[in-house]
Amino acid sequence: MTKSRRRTIAAGKATLMRLLLIATMAGGAAVAAYTAIAPPVPRANYSQILPAKVTQGATLAIDREVAELGVLAVDEVGRAGFRLKNSGTEPIEISQVRTSCMCTFADIALPRGNSPEFNMAMHNDAAVNAWKGVLDPGEEATVTVVYKPSLMPVEGSVARNVKFATNDPQKPVVELDVHATVKGATSG
User: Is the distance from CB of 168 to CB of 150 less than 8 angstroms?
Assistant: First the structure.
């Protein structure tokens, strides 16, 4: 290959590299411009609890926010109850009930009946996700949290929870936690 032919090829490669760089930069600018002006794509955030409309005088008392389930074999089931009381002058509204894991379930026993069984919002049907309960002044309810390690086997210390929204201005989102030590599962 002649010297002039090698220079022509080298010049062509340099020109192609400059064009590639310009195209890459222009493409990046186009993507950045599109991202800046395009409407955001809604993404499901099933763990997010949206604030409920608060009501002055709605006051929720909770007996505890954490329950220890102790040591559980992977095939055992742990349960904990949390007592709620409306200690205010206005009704307490409970909504958006969901758990933190598919291995955790919750239900609420109210004076006028029980709620459906709750799981992660993405695993509940629309009617369960839309459920709302009311606790009138002086009334009590029990939230039962059930942890089934076999559905999501891990070994060691485990923390799971149930969350829900209320209209109590001091407790717009309530989180009730359960802890357990699981034995006999594979780590993961």
Answer: no
CB atoms within 10 A of CB 29: 10
**Of 69, 76, 73, residue with least CA distance to 148:** 76
How do strand 92-99 and strand 156-166 relate by DSSP bridges?
antiparallel
DSSP 146: E
Number of structural domains (the chain) is 2
> What residues contact residue 126 under an 8 Å CB cut-off, 6+ apart?
none
User: Looking at the structure, do residues 25 and 71 belong to the same domain, yes or no?
Assistant: no
The reported pTM is: 0.74
pLDDT in tens, 41-69: 444 455 588 878 999 999 999 999 999 99
CB 54 within 8 A of CB 170: no
Within a domain: residue 153?
A: yes
